[in-house]
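Before relying on records like the one below, remember that each one covers exactly one chain. Contacts with other chains, cofactors or solvent are not represented anywhere in the record.
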Amino acid sequence: MLKILLKLTLFFTVFFIISLVLSKVYTSVVMKNSTLNRVERQLNNFDGVIKRLIIGDSHPRSSIHPQVLENSFLFTSPGEDYIQTYYKLNYILSESDHRDEIEIILLQLDLHTFSSFRKYRYDNDEYYWSKYIDYIQLGFETGDLSYYFSKWLLGNVFSYYSGRKDLFEYIYAIVILKGQVKQEEMISGFVPFHNDFSKVGDPARRAKNRNAFLYKDHNLFDEDIADYLTRTIELCRTHGKRLVFVSYPTTRIYYDVATGYFRGGTYAEKIDSLLASYSDIPLLDFHDLYFDRDTLFSDSDHLNLMGAELFSREMEAALSSLKYCE
């Protein structure tokens, strides 16, 4: 029995040491160069004035060019939901050096904004989000303690495991390819896409697959996400920030497929009720702005660089037309 205990002790000691080493490599080297951390560094090192803060997922991230929409910064992340947004904004409005400069915050309001598929999108990024989110508290609040406890473990103890794919790709690039890991182009949080959706094969199938990913077998109006949107709004108002809802452009083929998921449900009534509660917040609805202009899109629901430049001019004009923005 004593030998077994000694072997187990040795095993877990070695396992713990290896885990610490791998986690240190992952958090200090790999995650340091991740897209999420690069956005954060760009925000912290930004030497201009940020009057317009854009938050949300990959839609605003690829749609607004900060060199066209002046005094703006995109603090976004792929697949971000309003639970994540709330905690990030809480940090920015409390800790960021730019917190007093920010006048307007653009809140995303797209068809997929409340889909429950977005609620469980922490894979590979648990360590990053652990800087903002108290996973245990969130687990109690949402009634999903087991899920968020697992995220706490992956974010605080076994971060290398959650990011194992990025870790091994980094090691492969450095050791085998003898070079640096390629990084996305990024300008004040903006990530330009360069594809042309009008030239892809079978766009109908691509739009259908994209919609299935976002909506199929998901709750289209998750109450927890809606609750955190409410918290986000109240947080911004507490700090005296003006708010604007924005629906971002999609292709016609994407939107036609998407609306099929919402027929016959209560989604419309819930959205109308939510908007009625915040009728003082302007809604800029651009979802159909570029219908039948697929050359402006990288895929069925993300603008490419040319589309982002055009849309940013539209956004500038729309924001300038709002009386309280003058």
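The radius of gyration is 21 Å.
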